[in-house]
Amino acid sequence: MKFKKLLIATASIVSASPLLTSVPVFASTPQPVTTTVTVSSDCSSPTAINANPLGRYSKVKLTVAYNDIDDPDDATEGETLHVYDTGNVFDQTVQVDSPTVTFPTFVTPDNDNVYGCVNGYDGDETATITAEITPGPCQPNTTLSGSSWVSQFPTSTSTSDLVDPFRTNANNFIGALQNAGASVSISATYRPPQRAYLMHYAYEIARKNMDPTDVPLRSDVAVCWVHTTSNGSVDHAASKKAAADMVKDYQIVHEPSLTSNHTQGLAIDMNISWSGTMTITDGNGKQVEIKAPRSGATNSDLWAVGASYNVYKLASDHPHWSVDGH
Ligand SMILES: [Zn+2]
User: Fold this and answer.
1) For position 74, which CATH number holds?
2) Lowest mean pLDDT among 17-31, 80-94, 172-186
3) Are 315 and 202 in a shared domain?
4) How far, in Å, from the CA of 182 to the mean position of ligand 1?
């Protein structure tokens, strides 16, 4: 079998870095790539026409020429050529020495492959299959965007996922709060960058009209942002709806950034409350009295105690404390 190199524009998602890759999937209109493969194999070992599995809604147009070299008048042999895809969208049998035929374009299911083979190959038949393949908007084996992603890559609520020395400082501050009788409820520490990526681009598509085909891929998040109609064209309304569902289920209020102190293990969201007057030991070993308001969100005396532990409050974000106040 002989392959021309099949370049699928969407195939280059392998990332050298575990962090965000900024490789665009493709421009808004994916371009068709043509490859020609010679098939001279029996159907016990079919010849692959595409080099890489195809993602859903790839478009394939096949042109087939099939000749029996030693027996051009087909007087004694009648082996047929079988051309088909694994998703059972395309399945054609071609008679030997028939005229070259171009079949109508078909749209693939996810993770599809196209094969050709000769039924009863005896060595003197040659088929040439030219495939014009337009990559679909999704990599193979991806899951469409939508609410199902929200439970993936969960945010930690444990200080053990923070990075030192901030981890130790946060633990010391929380320990002092608990010794002073405060109630501390942690809602977020480390946010995986994959989650930040999903949150960020869901917001961009849903709220800022980003074209879903322009979202860069991450090799470690098998999401497809582009929803499609049954004929394979981009369904912008469905893509935006799925992103909006994610924004809602993530409970996103402000535009999420791709990198933040949370994605670096340098921030903690926690609700802190107490009753009466709390006497707490600050980071310098000094006893400090904290009265009303009895909430970590609003009591700037407590913020000063946090700062003595190198845990700094972001005033505009009620539960948020970090390494630098951002
Ligand atoms: Zn936060």
Assistant:
1) 2.60.120
2) 17-31
3) yes
4) 20
Shared domain for 173 and 124, answered yes or no, is: no
d(CA 322, CA 326): 6
Q: Which two tokens stand for residue 311?
A: 């845990």
Ligand 1 centroid – CA 1 distance (Å)? 57
The yes-or-no verdict on residue 40 having pLDDT over 70 is yes
Say how many domains are in the chain: 2
DSSP labels, 175-208: HHHHHTT-EEEEEES---HHHHHHHHHHHHHHHH
Residue 321 CA, ligand 1 centroid: distance in Å = 7
Distance of CA 320 from the midpoint of ligand 1 (Å): 4
Residues in a beta bridge with 322 = 267, 312
The answer to whether the peptide bond before residue 216 is cis (omega within 30 degrees of 0) is no
SS3 state at 68: strand
Q: Are residues 147 and 104 in the same domain?
A: no
Asked whether the whole model's pTM tops 0.90, one would answer no
pLDDT tens readout for residues 286-315: 999 999 999 999 999 999 999 999 999 999
Tell me how far the alpha carbon of residue 179 lies from the centroid of ligand 1, in angstroms. Answer: 24
The amino acid at residue 87 is G
Q: Look at residue 324 and tell me if it is in a domain.
A: yes
pLDDT of residue 229: 87
Nearest Cα residue to 246 out of 286, 291, 212, 281? 212
Measured distance CA(244)–CA(258) in Å, rounded: 18
Q: Is residue 1 part of a domain?
A: no
For 304, the enclosing helix (H) or strand (E) is: helix 300-308
Instruction: Report in angstroms the alpha-carbon separations of 200 from 25, 225, 310.
Output: 17, 12, 29
d(CA 2, CA 7) in angstroms, rounded, equals 15
Top pLDDT among 27 and 145 is at: 145
Q: Tell me, yes or no, whether 252 lies in a domain.
A: yes
